[in-house]
């Protein structure tokens, strides 16, 4: 089932309302108690919406969305942004970001699409500031970052600034030009950490309402291809999964100065897939193995930030491409099983139990979950 409808501006504003507090309280009353919703993007140009009740997932809705490679929920919990990994939008060479809103009947409805800058093809990831007022889109194909300004209440974003990247690396197939892959806001909200698979670097960008500038460049190993990022909840350790040499690195980060200080550790075994941090900050999860079918659990030393292996799961589910962690569960997208695997997680240290398939989604691409107020 696909739904392809849109809301006019008046209807959108009626849903959103004028005050953020009213937004939070009204949506909290409408939605099921925590945990409640999961969104899974599909390579079949769909987003599947599930209601979560412990280990049980119930499909509530399927909405149309073209190549939803990255899903992000606004802090008001009533708006979802989907990055469309496409090469054209409205007959122009650019990608797009789609906005969905929660209607009064509890269903998510498409509100509209935002065109990215020209040549911003194949966008890969959207990072939303904790206050919900701006976002950074990493544009893999177009070699750039777009700063999006988001009006109050989470209305449809608009491009406010463009930062074009240059550079290359030694890998002749994947590093002929810059390929921004991911962005993460630090704890100050005024800086963004980014990865560039094509130029072997991670960067710190300074951001405000209308400007995006380079604050620091930090080179990684030649041919490493930094891709996935995870920032420790304390904001002092950055974890980087390198796509091309399949290594895992950790870096000391000073949020006050906005600087990556030095590398703490490099793990050279095959751990270069997706990353997720347990909310406690004690545990890091990674995907690796020849078929990306091994989920590894790493204990994070609280003093120096080094990683020590805690568990390794050969999940026997074939290729997995993304994961996200909550306090009591780790969710892994399996391409082979066409669905979502749920590992029960210890709420204190993040140890995992055997997985179960909780949802079937064809060609899963991305996942985001929404939890209600504490």
Automatic annotation (TrEMBL):
Coiled coil (UniProt feature): none
Record flagged with keyword Endoplasmic reticulum: no
GO terms of molecular function: 6-phosphogluconolactonase activity
GO BP of this protein: glucose metabolic process
Family per similarity comment: Belongs to the cycloisomerase 2 family.
PANTHER family, A to Z: 6-PHOSPHOGLUCONOLACTONASE, 6-PHOSPHOGLUCONOLACTONASE-RELATED
Name of the protein described by the UniProt record: 6-phosphogluconolactonase (Cycloisomerase 2 family)
